[in-house]
Amino acid sequence: TTLVAPTPTQTNPSGEEERETWGKKIDFLLSVIGFAVDLANVWRFPYLCYKNGGGAFLVPYLFFMLIAGMPLFYMELALGQYNREGAAGVWKICPIFKGVGFTVILISLYVGFYYNVIISWALFYLFSSFTGELPWVHCNNTWNSPNCSDWADNTTVSDIYKATPAQEYFERGVLHIQDSNGIDDLGRPRWQLTSCLAVVIVLLYFSLWKGVKTSGKVVWITATMPYVVLTVLLIRGVTLPGAKDGIKAYLSVDFLRLCDAKVWIEAATQICFSLGVGFGVLIAFSSYNKFSNNCYRDAIITSSINSLTSFFSGFVVFSFLGYMSHKHNVPLDKVARDGAGLVFVIYPEAIATLPGSSIWAVIFFIMLLTLGIDSAMGGMESVITGLIDEFKFLHKHRELFTLFIVVATFLISLFCVTNGGMYVFTLLDHFAAGTSILFGVLIEAIGIAWFYGVDRFSDDIEEMIGQRPGMYWRLCWKFVSPCFLLFMVVVSFATFNPPNYGSYMFPPWANMVGWCLAMSSMTMVPLYAIYKLCTLPGKFCDRLAYAITPETEHHLVDNGEVRQFTVCKDLILMY
């Protein structure tokens, strides 16, 4: 069968036998789409669009997509496909930058510590939906507090002393956060969430253990199911009273909002995180492509599908938010929110009011489960591919190494399924992949554009697909995208706010732990550069020459033929 058939191998121009390749081109495309289209497409983009001028938000969003999102997406796909290595191994083209490969591998590992927990929440909700009456429809459960109040009895929704049944189910019934006083009072892992987390880990392992032979087939379900469910939910949503008003609010255009710098910053931030650049996943996935695969076309198709999915999901989300606003006679901004509160509180509450609510809940949480699984698969594949390509002896033990990675991830994730696990989750979410991933992509762009060279990189692409990137792409890689990323790193530091969960403020030691986590990945860049310069032979100038020259051309350094470039030439001649 297809699942056990040998995966074809490729031979590169040097004649060396290379790794397995995707069984079919569609396996790769679905894997990239499945990774890039994640929970944030459902819970963040629609809300950002609504609060930042509706349709007007698409102006800065598309602008940043064109000047940074697509060029960086294209760059990573081409980088992985040409060099046939993971996130660290590709830097044989400029060894001094290999540290950034370890940076993105660490970031993907850190994200896995808490992202899998979100999937376990979705699985817990899925199991809870197989009942005659959903457990978040009333306040008569053992976990409810005296502050619990149904929508019908609570017209002052913004009252901080009131909580809806769905909100209390999430916080008190699922998380049991009421049994913790803060991050220094975690308690033991809750067996219900631990069991769900274990199921998620098992699913991830058997999706990844054989490499693209298995993951390429799993995504046929996990990457396509969300589109089926979103379409079904949209058809149901638009038939609800108030849905039209919700969609109208989502699309309403307020061009005056474009005068607000914050709108542009949020659009830029959304681009940075929504496409999945900087996690090493695109590099890992594309490294399993055939050498002659048209990565340019793939970049355009997959990045466009990602953005269109975000926009499409907004219709689904706001049709239900409009319905909630109409049903409870409250302004839309009282029910509109982003993040986990949307998919684990507001949306379940809306579903609970529908006829056949249990069926709709099952459908919705299956969608969340599949959205999360293939994104988690991508992150794990980045770690596994990146490390086994760097440490070749691991190739023969991929199944065992994959088991080690997923079990280690599971053990760390246990901190997030304790009574105070939400505090650990919030801390990880705030620090693991914020400024650090922007920094990683910035260094990656500088390494490709200014040290390896845009011209040389363009030659590599032409060798693969027979078409040299146009002036637009080269200008973006050389100047526009690095400047954009530098701006985002500065903004990220300048606008940094300590994490909080509701009214809970984290103690100073927790913030220090968070910063140590962020810095542990970013410091891989200078630490590896220092290590490389210290271990290479010769004088400092010779070491530097070796460190910035592709490993295949070190003989040129031995002969004194050191590559040079001048800024003036690059400014004048973009050939």
From TrEMBL:
The gene is slc6a3. Pfam families: SNF. Keywords: Disulfide bond, Membrane, Metal-binding, Sodium, Symport, Transmembrane, Transmembrane helix, Transport. PROSITE patterns: NA_NEUROTRAN_SYMP_1, NA_NEUROTRAN_SYMP_2, NA_NEUROTRAN_SYMP_3. Disulfide bonds join 139-148. Belongs to the sodium:neurotransmitter symporter (SNF) (TC 2.A.22) family. Coiled coil: none annotated. Its main location: membrane. Na(+) binds at residues 34, 36-37, 41, 274, 306, 371, 374-375. This is Transporter. It is a multi-pass membrane protein. InterPro entries: Na/ntran_symport, SNS_sf. It is found in: Membrane. One of its GO terms (biological process) is sodium ion transmembrane transport. It comes from Sphaeramia orbicularis (orbiculate cardinalfish). PANTHER family: SODIUM-DEPENDENT DOPAMINE TRANSPORTER (PTHR11616:SF38), SODIUM/CHLORIDE DEPENDENT TRANSPORTER (PTHR11616). It comes from the Eukaryota. The keyword Cell inner membrane does not apply.
